[in-house]
Amino acid sequence: xxxxxxxxxxxxIGVLMASINGTITLISLPAIFxxxxxxxxxxxxxxxxxxxxxxxxxxxxxxSFGRLSDIFGRVRLYNLGFxxxxxxSILLFLTPNSGSLGALELIVFRIVQGxxxxxxxxxxxxxxxxxxxxxxxxxxxxxNQIAALAGSLVGLILGGIxxxxxxxxxxxVSVPVGILGxxxxxxxxxxxxxxxxxxxxxxxxxxxxxxGLILILIAIxxxxxxxxxxxxxxxxxxxxxxxxxxxxxxxxxxxxETKVKYPMFRLELFKIRMFAAGNLASFLRSIAxxxxxxxxxxxxxxxxxxxxxxxxxxxxxxxxxYTIPLMIGFVTMGPISGWLSDKYGARLLATLGMVIVGIGFxxxxxxxYNFNYAEFAGIIFLMGxxxxxxxxxxxxxxxxxxxxxxxxxxxxxxxxxQNTGQTLSMALFFTIVIISLASTLPSALANAVTQAGAxxxxxxxxxxxxxxxxxxAFLGYDPVKTIISSLPxxxxxxxxxxxxxxxxxxxxxAIAPSFMIALREAFYISAVLTFIAAIAxxxxxxxxxxxxxxxxxxxxxxx
Length: 559
Fold this sequence. Notes:
Elements: H1 3-35, H2 44-72, H3 74-94, H4 99-131, H5 137-162, H6 169-172, H7 174-188, H8 203-223, H9 237-257, H10 273-289, H11 292-307, H12 315-322, H13 324-344, H14 347-364, H15 373-400, H16 407-451, H17 458-461, H18 466-474, H19 479-485, H20 495-501, H21 506-538, E1 544-548, E2 554-558
Helix pairs in contact: 1-4, 1-5, 1-7, 2-3, 2-4, 2-8, 2-16, 3-4, 3-7, 4-16, 5-12, 5-13, 5-15, 8-9, 8-16, 10-15, 10-16, 10-21, 11-12, 11-18, 11-21, 13-15, 14-15, 14-21, 16-21
């Protein structure tokens, strides 16, 4: 077997494992939280960290690991990533405690996985780029990204099945894949580009960047939690202080990188037009698109599926199933766009892809909350096609534009920009939705319980934290039963009112108008960001293939 196919198959296994882990965890969170006895109405900070902690860690470490791979070898650090990810999966399966301690253990073990994932993500695109000639990289990256989507689909189905048996099994799935990948990567992968061992490590740059990004992402995470009388925590002094300190450290990092001999973050790469435009388009697309899946799942679980007779306990699984057209669209277009970009370049394909995704966001704003599923499936399939049209051509365009000796750093920079955008996207979606719901949801619920014959619950409805309500819906909890079970002593609800409130359509009908206003606002903003990403993509210029010549001179060939 030619080495390029060995490299592609191994990195594809890594992507498959990581993507299965992502969706299997997402869809299994209800079973996980019930398994460790955590109430989302009072402990949603744990949910936030399990959801976002992995991305925070990978986004922080990707650039450092990418640069280290240029110095010590991309394959060596990629192999280490497989091993660490597998160890993290085993630890998650063995999580010994429950309650708050169990949740903290899950977060720590997910961080271990995130460290392994950072090694994998920082090096997989560079290893593929090293192994394939420039006129086959788009196709190879397209195949690699198909595996990511296939893994997402497998994760949804496995999560729905395994979580009904035992929540621990959802973490066990990654172990055999990880063991196989670790053994195969150590046995078969080899270094093609010679590591730059003579170059030093930028310790100051690593420290300022890592601490700065961690503080910013922590501020974003805690900004989504209630603070005092506010539904959000953006006024929390800790959040404000973390954000200011983080931005200050990032500013110091940029200054450091212009002065050190061997910078971690190769700022000069942004002088390459195709690299800069491709990463800008990727960043904007990640902010616009990264939180889409979780918003659609909350929408389906909290409103559409209960309206159609599904119990709250089974909505997490079916929400995953009903979003499959989004993945099918990506899988359909991914390899085609990669192959076409090898022949004709990335500019037209990636730009058109972003335009299609932007149109998809606008079409989503036209749907009523009790939509026709065929229309919904058609729109998200269209968005999947657009995303698939963008992803592999844009990645190939970025990686083709940089000299071979900097591919590890470039791959880490690209992945960091993308992961940071995805984390920002979740924060953006949640912030928009929570702010909008905070002004309308409490009064809507108070009116609904009054009309149901339980006016004594109206004051309680006015105080329900919107964040907790969103995450409870996301975790598949029956909101009415949760509200009634948590009533203060002395408050009773007439049986007739309880019977009305426990009907499948009562709670969705009560919250749907407020939620749709919030969701449409988020989709409009995402559409604008996506169209700006299309403009950035169009400005990337003609296709550039960078080749390293004698003496380290870079020759950029227009093809």
